[in-house]
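For reference, the entry.
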Amino acid sequence: MRLPVPGAAERGAGTAPAVPPPRGELSSRVTAYLYGSTPSLPGPETVARADPLGDDLQLALHLCYELHYRGFAGVPDDMEWDPALLRLRALLERRFDAALRENRGRSRSVDDAFAEVLAEPADGTGISHFLLRDGTLKHLREHAVLRSIYQLREADPHLWVIPRLTGRAKAGMMTVQYDEFGCGRAERIHARLYADLMRDLALDPAYGHYLPLVGAEALAAVNLMSLLGLHRARRGALVGHFAALEVTSSPAASRIAAAMRRIGAGAAAIRFYDEHVEADAVHEQVVRREVVGGLLADEPALAAEIVFGVDATVWLEERLAAKVTAAWGTAASALRHPLGTNGTPQPQPQPLSPLPLTAM
């Protein structure tokens, strides 16, 4: 059995989320390893058999990544750099990355990539368009749950790129991130504003609380941020990802804010999206001119990776939107389990108990 490093702290339930229930062989084995119930993890053959965009692999990858953020209740902090987990994470990342490169669009240049995301079709069919035209309180709450896995740590993965940039790119990124983190005021941090939004919608704002309800499509969109942020070699793709989010955020936020007002959501819920309408309209210019432009001036060879970051982001977001709007169009839930009226999962997923060694 693996033993924790002497003196390694364990996070309490009040500061870190619980490990969510697994969704297959990969996530079951990772969960058991985190609990210390097995000394081994899946190898290349098991990873190769998994769907790279499916629930099991995406949750297993998310479990590995979360160790670099808040961790999990009952899991020692030193597991963040466990060599066996890092080896498995590398295998999972290769499968995920290969799927992204196979399925993403094929923009020819950075300008082509941004021209595509800047286009706003009059008859848009994405999530924000659905919410504006046909959304109900149920849809708003499900959307808030799906986005909570990202929004409650909104800017954190992008900060990893800061020491990997110089000059204009670094200054521009810090300008935008200063806003994301509330301009020095804790109550204005965007993740805090999102927690206030969740309370307004009678949802639990605890970090990671709704992870069991979030499907593979939403997990993949969040995992992309960590995949790009944790690797210096992917700095160009992370800048492309960041730029794609900022460019598309303001119009979508405007539609969701209007939907919030029409449906009668609370002031805090509306405030989050109003904040993004104004802030991200400014951020878009800074990101495109200073962050992307500065990085290309310093490292022109990263142009293809910037394009990959844009295209992969757009492809995953469109995939998520198609899944969500298809469910809503048939009056089904876009979550893995529907919400109860008080914001709890219904039915409530059961926590996983540590697995005995004989089960592995």
